[in-house]
Description:
The protein is mainly alpha-helical. It is built from 2 helices and no strands. It has one domain. It has helices at residues 2-28, 30-55. The termini are close together.
Amino acid sequence: MHLLAVYILFVAIGDVLAYAIGRGVEQMSPATSLPVFLACFFLVFWGAWRLAVRFT
């Protein structure tokens, strides 16, 4: 149960970062902001799992 809680925490933090990166890219190029956001969004799930397993 602790692993799941840590995973959800890392996903929440990562999704906020993915949103911020997407918004930053949107200022430079609106057409590329969606692919950048989606790539970050899905990488967050993979990275959060690896971090959660490592920290618990």
